[in-house]
Amino acid sequence: MAIDIGISDKDRAKIAEALSKMLADSYILYLKTHNFHWNVTGPMFQTLHSMFMVQYTELWNALDLIAERIRALGHPAPGSYKRYVQLSSIKEEEGVPSATEMIKQLVAGQEAVARTARAAFKVADAANDQPTADLLTQRMEVHEKNAWMLRVLLEDGGSAKAGKKGRK
What we know:
With 168 residues, the chain is an all-alpha fold. The chain has a single domain (9-154), classed as Ferritin, core subunit, four-helix bundle (Ferritin, Up-down Bundle), CATH 1.20.1260. 74% of the residues lie in helices and 0% in strands. The chain has 6 helices and no strands. The protein has helices at residues 9-39, 45-72, 81-87, 99-126, 130-151, 158-166. The radius of gyration is 18 Å and the shape is elongated. The model has no long low-confidence stretch (mean pLDDT 93). InterPro entries: DPS_DNA-bd, DPS_DNA-bd_CS, Ferritin-like, Ferritin-like_SF, Ferritin_DPS_dom.
């Protein structure tokens, strides 16, 4: 049966393509975050182990929302590691980096997913697809917040000292 939701076939295909990249980035970031949860070591173990679990669980739940939106637009959702690697802007991690390097990679990953969501938002917005735009807005908010929470773990407190010097 033909889909008649007020979005042309051509636009639905473009949106599904953009969402497929979002799904791939989200899945690769999920896998990387879960891997780091299992393998993190060092003095920040408990903090990172817990934070990574919260983030990979949130990512896992988001995968279904993204895939189901692709399906609602009448297109198949990608579902293989091979396809995700082809579509994703995030590189897989093959080793076990230091905790600091894990944080850096996850900041970069969270920011990459936010950029992918922002690009997909433009496609959805141009097609007047509010449900997809809403989903992507929510995803951007989550990924930007996660990137910030990870990024602050890399700070040494120097910026607070610099702020105090500037006030003298």
